[in-house]
Amino acid sequence: MTAYADIPPLLSCLNDAGTDGYLEKLWDTADVHKLVQHSHKRRFQVIRRQNRRALATSERLSATLKGRERDLVQICGALGFEQRVCATFIKVLELV
Predict the structure, then answer these.
(1) C-beta separation of 25 from 7 below 8 A
(2) Taking 90 as the threshold, does the pLDDT of residue 25 lie above it?
(3) DSSP one-letter code for 20
(4) CA atoms of 21 and 40, how far apart (whole Å)
(5) What is the reported pLDDT for 94?
């Protein structure tokens, strides 16, 4: 809500802030409803995109850790380390 009547600076501020829109006084209830629906839909899309990115990152991390665990098992075996030593190395890897 603003008391300013000069629309161009207002629009510039709204665009810079990333808002979904604005309503002029005296607004229509249907316009308020449309704006809220649009904002909700846009926010849901942002959340869904963030969730997909987080899942992809988690899957890449999991695949990387599994590969490194296999490498550690091979190295431990080649060096003749006991199973518990290898398990300790894997725990350290998971913590890092």
Answers:
(1) no
(2) no
(3) S
(4) 12
(5) 82
